Amino acid sequence: MTKISSNIKFLRKKKGLTQQQFADEVGIKRSLVGAYEEERAEPKYDLLKNIALFFDITVDDFINETIDDKFLARPKPNAGGLRVLSISVDKEDNENIEMVPLKASAGYMNGYADPEYVAQLPKLYLPMFKQGTYRGFEIKGDSMLPLVSGTTIIGEYVENWGDIKAAETYVVISKNDGVVYKRIGNKFKDNKKLKLVSDNPVYEPYEINGEDILEVWKAKAYISTHLPLPTPEPTMESLTNMMAQMQRSISKLEGNN
Question: One digit per residue, pLDDT tens: the chain, 257 residues?
């Protein structure tokens, strides 16, 4: 038996579940449980993640370790700890910059940790980003003006969430909100809530729980087809205000002499 099939069978029996009870718990047909345990099929990655979560072990252990009575599960990383990221490389073994367009955002929530999924994302090469791990995320909406909807944010992967800095901008991937680009409103500590702030004051800040966060990417650059508008010509009103301000400044300097 493969490790996956034997691990499913061992963990199911350890919980005292029949194949039908286990199938009901993870939302699959009983026949699939039999197929997995008898090595006639293997669960897809999304289902594998759900099964590992149900048994409270890591996917890595579930795939690579023989789980029996002597097995000692590895401690799961906390929100401030280091994380493992799926990446892809080019022919020279250099890390690619994968792009996550709007239409792929929903799929990214399920496949962000799947090497096969990540390898299928569009690639981008930017010579100024050679050190570190980067990914591009297309944003939507007007919450971060002047960056408009459709702008791609190039983010650098944040391994340790304790390094997140308040007042700086990040792409935050969470279970409930998906992919968002926001300014951080507080230092992240002890798996507590993270405050997300929009640059557009029309949108109210909000908080997300640390346990809901999947990935964090520090914004390093952006790509946009929206070019800035020219500086408007000065109006009589603006010139009058400038002159009044200059006169006040001169009067203040004369008063200090």
Answer: 468 899 999 999 988 999 999 999 889 999 999 999 999 888 887 788 888 888 888 777 788 788 887 765 544 444 444 455 777 777 777 788 999 998 888 788 777 777 778 888 899 888 888 778 899 999 999 999 999 999 999 999 998 888 899 999 999 999 888 899 999 999 887 667 899 999 999 999 999 988 889 899 999 999 999 887 787 777 777 778 778 888 887 877 777 66
Enter the tokens of residue 101.
């367009």
In degrees and rounded to multiples of 5, residue 33 shows phi and psi of: -60, -45
> Cβ(203)–Cβ(216) under 8 Å?
no
Cis ω for the linkage preceding 146 (within 30 of 0): yes
Helix segments in the chain, DSSP class H: 3-14, 19-26, 30-37, 45-54, 59-64, 105-111, 115-119, 236-256
Q: How many whole angstroms separate alpha carbon 41 and alpha carbon 33?
A: 9
Which amino acid would we find at residue 23? A
Q: In what order do the strands lie in the sheet with 194-197?
A: 123-124, 97-100, 134-138, 152-157, 213-223, 169-174, 178-184, 194-197, 206-208
- pTM for the predicted model, two decimal places: 0.60
